Amino acid sequence: MSNTDFTLAIEDLTVSFDGFKAVDSLNLYIDKDELRVVIGPNGAGKTTVLDLICGKTKSTSGSIKFKNKELTKLAEHEIVHAGVGRKFQTPSIYENLSVYDNLEVSFPRGRSVFGSLAFKCDEEVDSRIREVAKDIFLEEFLEMESALLSHGQKQWLEIGMLLIQEPELLMLDEPVAGMSVKERELTADLLNRICKGRSVLVIEHDMDFVAKIAHKVTVLHQGKILAEGDMQTVQNDPNVIEVYLGH
Amino acid sequence: MNFVYDRLLGGKNGAIGLAILAALILIVLPLVLDLFRLNLVGKYLTYAFAAVSLVLLWGYGGILSLGQGVFFGLGGYCMAMFLKLEASDPEATKIQSTPGIPDFMDWNQLTELPWFWEPFESFGFTLLAVILVPSIFAFIIGYSMFKRRVGGVYFAIITQIIALILTVLIVGQQGYTGGINGITDLKTLNGWDIRDDSSKYILYFINAFLLFGVILLCRFILTSKFGRLLLAMRDKEDRVRFSGYDVSNFKIFIFCVSAMISAIGGAMFTLQVGFMSPSFVGIVPSIEMVIFAAVGGRMSLIGVVYGTLMVNFGKTMFSETFPELWLYLMGALFIAVVMYFPNGLAGLWEKYGNKIVTPIKNMKVFSTIKSTIENKRLAKAKASNE
User: Fold this and answer.
1) Counting CB atoms within 10 angstroms of each CB, which of A18, A51, A181, B119 has the fewest?
2) Are residues B54 and B67 in the same domain?
3) From the first residue on, what is the mean pLDDT of each consecutive set of 10 residues in chain B (386 residues)?
4) Interface test with A, best of B147, B148, B242, B252 (most A CBs within 10 A)
5) CB B88 within 8 A of CB B188
6) How far is Cα B344 from Cα B329, in angstroms, rounded to an integer?
7) Are A154 and A213 in contact (CB under 8 A)?
8) Angle made by CA atoms A201, A24, A12, in degrees to the nearest 5
């Protein structure tokens, strides 16, 4: 478990649920400024990998190093404080709060009990909220109750709630699920913009969308890496074709 | 100024609601009710503390505690222990085999004051204990449950069981607690007789002011980022956790605050009613407190005060005429609230309040007054221009 130059270095990561290895001695390295897409058939362990990185699931063995800091022993909120943000598969936003409040609650200040009691929404917070809202195409919806947003807008809002925390590793689980063609284009554009200065890890099924955003693609199958490389290489890999089309 | 107006009073609507409630409790009720009934209202208002605490915990935090009676009782018992010690001076208890200790201890063959009673000789300590004992107890329960991510129904059941355990403990340890009868025959507070008429009035007003203080404290908490986080946690706990918050700490804190608020109510109950007993600690009172909050509207700090008053008036009226029917009626009321108007009285007011207020606002008297004022103002402006 040596130190590396990578933002995220996963080595020999294994998790087993009652003997079933959902992730099996996985090795995965992600660079700064890199946008990596993980694809794979259902049950390949994609979401489990994200769960392991953000601490939702505890690993059986192996290590996850983020900027050479071991994450497997940290609590969920400590992993967030270290600079890891994660979007869930179904949009997780606070439906009974306005878009503005959703972003304000996610602003990385006043995270302790007393800090949150003393928190003031000052100039800095306000301008940051507006800036992020602009990035995620929701600047005109700030005052709207977020339950009223469309499915695609909810996805954007959750991405915005992560962006406002300026994470160095951003993990997105199916960010364009339920989006229209137009919304997908905007999202691809958004992801290409936000991957600068940080690492982004995306799980996605939509191959056209993957082709638009991916720097590198990792194919996961039965908890193991089947192939890795740019989109072209992966698509022509006989093993990958076998897994996706062979059955 | 903005801080006070927007956050504590809750803007225009909040301020009006608070003013109406204050007028009712501080002016109307003391004027129209005789002392016996007013004392009864004072007693109901001590339950309102617990109902208000449930707005924080249950309404906003989504944590249903079926054990608020525990904290109400702990606060009440702390106060009762002090008053009992004062009532048990050697002079008043000289016929006992051990003078100077509370009568029930003497009946139970205790010959000296137990160690945990001794600090309650001090009034300062007692006031601190009223606040701290329930808070620390809540912290221990909260820490051991929320850190393990126990929540929802499991939390409700465990708090209910704690209420039951504490009742059994109090009843069983007769020599230390007064048993099923509780701590009775309380007479004076630092030499001030709490039983005569004038002190009943004074205690009623102290109680009312404390209640308003607590409501303002809750407003402060709920209008801060903490309040929005509570709503966020109720909705999507995982999202809050993966946004970098230690969710359990927030839950522990709000549980402790709600325990403290209920305890203040308990202490005021002891002072106004003159005794404390296990029947205010157990499962039934704890559930009644939840019903007060549900009927009043669990999202409304003001609504639950009305809810508490109405349910209790109903209870007093009905149980005078049909004592055995009351419990069924209360159950039916709770089911009706949950099924048909989940936001309680406050929700009904929000929905239909305008239909009542608008005709009153549009009454001729008001428009006449308004236009008169307006005319005067214009005339004045005209005069100053010339």
Assistant:
1) A18
2) yes
3) 70 85 94 93 96 96 95 97 93 88 92 93 96 97 95 94 96 93 92 91 96 95 94 93 95 97 97 94 93 94 95 86 82 87 87 78 75 83 76
4) B242
5) no
6) 16
7) no
8) 75
**Shortest CB distance from B224 goes to which of A76, A111, A117?**
A117
Total domain count, chain A: 1
B98 found inside a domain? yes
Question: ipTM value of the model?
Answer: 0.90
CB contact under 8 A, B239 and A93: yes
Count Cβ neighbours within 10 Å for each residue of B365-383 and write b for 16 or more, e otherwise.
Answer: eeeeeeeeeeeeeeeeeee
Its domain, for residue B360, covers 346-386
Distance spanning both ends of chain B, measured CA to CA: 36
The predicted model scores a pTM of: 0.91
Model confidence at A186, pLDDT cuts 50, 70, 90, reads very high
Could you give the count of Cα atoms lying within 13 Å of B275 in the half-sphere of its Cβ? 12
**Strand positions, DSSP E, chain A:** 8-17, 20-30, 35-39, 61-66, 69-70, 84-87, 169-173, 199-203, 216-221, 224-229
In angstroms, the CA A79 to CA B246 distance is 11
Q: Name which of B280, B279, B276 is nearest B79 in CA terms.
A: B276
**Residues B353, B314 within the same domain:** no
What residue has token string 């607690």?
B177
Q: Are residues B324 and B181 in the same domain?
A: yes
Other Cβ atoms within 10 Å of B316 Cβ, number: 14
User: Are B242 and A56 in contact (CB < 8 Å)?
Assistant: yes
- pLDDT for the residue numbered B359: 76
* Minimal-distance CA residue of chain A relative to B235: A94
Cβ neighbours of residue A176 closer than 8 Å, sequence gap 6 or more: A152, A155, A183, A184, A187, A204, A206, A209
